[in-house]
Every structure is written in C-alpha cells, then in structure tokens.
Amino acid sequence: xxxxxxxxxxxxxxxxxxxxxxxxxxxxxxxxxxxxxxxxxxxxxxxxxxxxxxxxxxxxxxxxxxxxxxxxxxxxxxxxxxxxxxxxxxxxxxxxxxxxxxxxxxxxxxxxxxxxxxxxxxxxxxxxxxxxxxxxxxxxxxxxxxxxxxxxxxxxxxxxxxxxxxxxxxxxxxxxxxxxxxxxxxxxxxxxxxxxxxxxxxxxxxxxxxxxxxxxxxxxxxxxxxxxxxxxxxxxxxxxxxxxxxxxxxxxxxxxxxxxxxxxxxxxxxxxxxxxxxxxxxxxxxxxx
Length: 289
Fold this sequence. Notes:
By secondary structure, the chain is mainly β. The protein has helices at residues 38-48, 190-198, 269-273; strands at 5-10, 16-18, 56-60, 64-68, 72-78, 83-85, 88-90, 96-98, 104-106, 114-119, 150-152, 175-181, 201-203, 211-215, 230-231, 236-238, 246-248, 255-256, 260-264, 280-285.
C-alpha cells in the first residue's frame, strides 16, 4: 500500500469528502453536492498547492483528527477553530507541515459551522460521475468518515503558498440572503410575501447539507392543493406545509412538490453554510437580472 494515505483517528460529528460537486446531472435526478462553502474549500486547496477542484474534507462543528503516513502539508479554513500538530498549537488559515505519524487535530469551531481541511495531493477516493463528493441525499460518493477510515492521497501538484495566513470572511452574525421572488410566489398571500421580506427569521437546528431550515413566521398560502413535482435549483426557498422557509443547499433534491416562493443569490449561499442555529436571517428582495 502507498504511504500517501491519511488515517482518520477521530471522524467528528460529520466529516465528508467534498469537491466542486456534480453539476449537470439534475436531469438524471443527481444532486450537485460539493462543498457547502466553496470559497473556503478553494482557498485551503490554494494554500497547499492543490488545483481548486481537488477533494478536501468538510467538517461539521467539532472538527476531526488525522494521522498521515507520510509528511504532508495541510491547511485548515472555513469555520475558525484551534489546530494542533503533535499536541502543539499550529496555524489556522495557513500551510502547516504535518510529519509522518504525527496527529493533526482540528478542534471544535469557535464560530461558524463547517471547516475545510486540504492536504497536498488532495483526497484521492474513487470519483463517481466525475466527482469525489459525498452526497448525503443520494448516497453517491464515499460514506461520511468513521474512526479508522483510511483515505488515499493524490500526488502533490504544486508547492504550498508562501504566506503566513490568508484572510477569510468571518461567519455571519446576521445572515442576509438576497432573493428573487418566484417562480411560485403567487401561491402565497400578499401578507406572506411581505412577511418573508420584512420579518425576522432564525436558522433552525434542523438545518443540514440538504437545506437551511428557518424558524419564524409561517407563510400563508393563497392556494390549496399541491404542485406536481418540478425542478429545484440551488438556493430555492421552498415552503413546506408548516409554512417555514427552507433554503436548498448543495445536497438538495432535484425535484419537489412544495411551492418555491423565491431563490437566493448563489453568492450568498457560502455564508448560509457557516450560519449556526439561532443566527438571525433576513430575506432581502432584489430585482431579476
């Protein structure tokens, strides 16, 4: 066996392999998947000399611990938190050398939700439909990591960046999501549309990689009955029977039968990936481009 592998000593609450995902397969019922905070994933890849589409690890809230069999360079970004190598503090948001056999410990996030760990050469699990991403909805890609998992690494692609640290956006104290109303805003009362764009919501603890769920005013529908299933896009704001908006994230279903009252601008979704439960949410209407 090659020594270019990582042993997962502690998998954490939910750690998955992610890359840019599987765009272009929605007509086959395959979600896009991929890193929920693609900017953070691309940055840690750049810090270790990987191409932007190399696979990384996405952690959730409590980090993970990894032990390489060969000396590697890693970078940890996304949700900030403590990092150590062999029990000694190491830099967050910068390239860090981890000697063979030493333990890299990514601690619990001190803000935000999802951390990203890039390793020189990238995580080289077998791709499925052109991607190494774990998709929790369809089950495509590798399973979420478990203690004892062994992950293969690819060959180094380039030298690590010569920086002491890279600036990264802080997780939001308030999540502001710009939305374009429609295509099914006519299924809701005028008061409901006004509530969506003027009332306060909060991120629900029931949120996951499929969707950011909210707590707040229930949106009243003006039509009874249900829609036939129709295509869903990344950022769609779907309203289930309880009336609380759900913002679809990377592992969202490709079709759905509940009405979509609005769609969030793609540029605002990385911040949604880092908003912990209880974060205030505002939906701000913008005109169609």
